[in-house]
Amino acid sequence: MARSVTTRRKTINTAVAWAIGFLIFFPILWTILTSFKTEAQAINDPPLFLFFDWTLENYAVVQERSDYMRFLWNSVIIAGGSTVLGLMIAIPAAWSMAFVPSKRTKDILMWMLSTKMLPAVGVLYPIYLLFIQLGLLDTRTGLTIVMMLINLPIIVWMLYTYFKEIPGEILEAARMDGASLKEEILYILTPMAIPGIASTMLLNFILAWNEAFWTLNLTAAKAAPLTAFIASYSSPEGLFYAKLSAASTMAIAPILILGWFSQKQLVRGLTFGAVK
Amino acid sequence: MYLKNALRAVTALTLITTTSAFAETITIATVNNGDMIRMQGLTEDFTAKTGHTVEWVTLEENVLRQRVTQDIAAKGGQFDVLTIGMYETPIWAANEWLVSLDDLPAEYDKDDILPAMRAGLSHSGSLYAAPFYGESSMIMYRTDLLEKAGVTIPDAPTWGDVEAAAKAMTDKDNEVYGICLRGKAGWGENMAFITTVANSFGARWFDENWKPQLDTPEWKEAVSFYNNLLNSYGPPGASTNGFNENLALFQQGKCGMWIDATVAASFVTNPNDSTVADKVGFALAPNKEGVDKRSNWLWAWALAIPAGTQKEAAAKQFIEWATSKEYIELVASKEGWANVPPGARTSLYENPEYQKVPFAKMTLESINAANPDSPTVKPVPYVGIQYVAIPEWAGIGTAAGQEFSAMVAGQQTVDEALAKAQANTAEEMEAAGY
C-alpha cells in the first residue's frame, strides 16, 4: 500500500527539490547571464543579476575570432564516434558477462573499473609517446579511440547492470518457443534493454563531450574540440570573463539541448527495470 | 644567347618550384592577450609575403607551458613557433629545447631590440626568443584624485611618497581606495610584485651560496610595508586580486593608484573600457629612500622555435615578420599607435608619432631601469627580477605566494608567513641539490 503523503509535505518536498535543482544549475545560469554582459559589467561589484544592458557583442567577437563550427564538428565526431565504437564493444561484453558468466567475470569487472582509479596524468606520457609513434597526435581518430577506451569501463558496467535485471526466465521461455539465439537477442532482449542502452549512450556522449584533459593534451590545431575552444578564451593580461562565458555557453549549448530533449529517456534508463 | 635564355628559364622554373615547395603550414602556440589576438588578425599579411599559412593554438598561460613542455620533451613536433615568457626562455635554452635565433638576417636589425629584453631572452650570449612585446611595471595614478587630495607624486617617487598619496586619496565611504596591488597567490601573480618590493628594500631571494634569505630584516621590512599598505588603503578582498581584478577596479574609478605591468597603461587610457581614461598619470615604480634599486620588473612575451620542428625555416620567417619594425608599422596603420606591441624595439621609442602616446616615455624609462642580470642591491647567483630563473622557482614562488596571500587576508602574521616561506624554500632547494 502506498504511503499517504500530506499536501503540506508534498509542498515542502517540491520546494526543497527546486531549491537544490536551482543551486546545481546556478553556475551554468550565471555563465549564460555573464555572456550577455559587457566586460566591465561582468566583474561589477556588487554583481549584476538581471538588470544590465543585455548585449550580443561577446558572441559576435567569439564568432569572428574563432571557427566555432570546426570545433563543434570535432566534438560531434569525437563524442559520437567514441560512443558508437564503445557500444559495439560493450554490448557483447556485457551480454556475455550477464548471461553466461564464468568464474572470473566478477574479477574482470572489478579490474575494468580499477583502470578508472588511476589518475589520467599518470599515463599521459606513455600515451603521448605512443601517439607520436602511430602518428595519431592531433587527429580525430586518435582522440576517438582514447575517449572510447576511457569510457569503456563505465559503459560495460552500466550495460551489465541493465542486462542483469532482465530475468533469465524470459529468455528461457523464448527458447522454449523455438527462438534461435539471433532471434532471442534481436526480438526479446534488445527491445527490453533499449532504455538502458539509450541512457548509456547518452551518458557516454555527455562524458566524451565534456572531457577536457585528453582533448587538451592530445590536440593542437586540427582535431581540437570545444573544450580547447573554451580554453582559448582565458587571458593573463586583459579582461575576458564575458567572452569566456560566451564561448562556454556556445560550447555547452548543444549538449544542454540534447540533454533537455532526452531527459525522459535518461531518467527512464537510470531507473530501469524489466519487471516492474 | 639561346643557352643563356634556357639557363634563365631553368633558374626561373627552379625558383618557382622551390618557392611553392616551401609554402608550408606552421602551427603556433600562443596566449589570449590583446596583442596576440591582433597578430592573429593580421596573419594574412604574412601569408601574402611568404606563402606560408598559419594555424593558431590559443591556450591558457599555464596550460600552454605544460602542453608545450610535454611536447618538446617527447619530441612530438606539434608546434613550430611558441609564445613563451622571459622566465622560461633561458631555462629551456639551457635544456637545448629551443633553436638559436642568432642567424636572423641583417635587415631584421637585432641590435634594435631593447638591451634589457635581449639580455633576458638570451642564454650564453645567444638570442633564443624574439620579444613580441615587453613590459616593466610602473605606477598608474588618478590625476583628479591627487589634485583633490592636494598631494603630488614625483616622476621617481619613494615608497614614502606612495604611502602618503595612498593615505590622502583613500575615501572608503565612497569606495575609493588609495592603492590597488596584487594579492592573489602565484609565482607570476603576487610574488612578481612582492619580489620587486623586496628588491627595492634591499632584500634578495638567495645569497651567493643559494641560501634563502627570507629571514633577513630587509624582507621583514618589505613584506610588513606591503601588508600594511594594502590592508590600510587597499580595496576589500585584496588577497584575491590579480592583474585582471585590479584592472577592473581601476577602470571603474575605485583605485587612486595601481602599481602593475606597463601594458596596463593602454587599457586604462582606452576610453571604450575605462571610465577614467583621461585622468591617468604615470610614474616610475618606487624604491625605499636610500636604496639604489627600484621596484620595477621586466617581462617579455616572446616567440621561440622548439628544437625538433620540421619547419624551422618557415618558423623563422614568421618570427622575423611578427617582431619586425614593419609589423609595428602595420599595426599602427590599422589600429593606431597606442595599440602597437610595446617594449620590444628601440626604434619604436624614437618614432615621433609614438612619442605622442601618453605612456610611451614612462614605459621606456621603466624598462631601461630594469636589469635582470643585477636585480638586487646585494649580489645574487641568479638572473631575473620578479622571479628567479631556475626551474624550481615556479613551485617555490607559488608556495610563498600562498603564505603571503593568507597574510594579506589576515589569517597569519608577517613573521609567520615569512618563516613558512623560508622553511619551504630551504627544503625545496635542498631537495633540488643546491
From TrEMBL, chain A:
Q: Where is the ABC transmembrane type-1 domain?
A: 72-262
Quote the PROSITE patterns the UniProt record gives: ABC_TM1
**Keyword NAD included in the entry's annotation:** no
Q: Which Gene3D superfamilies match?
A: MetI-like
Magnesium: present as a keyword of the record? no
Chief location of this protein within or outside the cell: membrane
Pfam families in the record, alphabetically?
BPD_transp_1
The portions of this protein that span the membrane are: 12-33, 71-96, 117-136, 142-163, 184-209, 240-261
Keywords for this entry? Answer: Cell membrane, Membrane, Transmembrane, Transmembrane helix, Transport
CDD domains tied to this protein: TM_PBP2 (cd06261)
Places the protein is found: Cell membrane
**Which family is this sequence assigned to?**
Belongs to the binding-protein-dependent transport system permease family.
Provide the protein name: Carbohydrate ABC transporter permease
Look up and give the organism this protein is from. Roseibium porphyridii
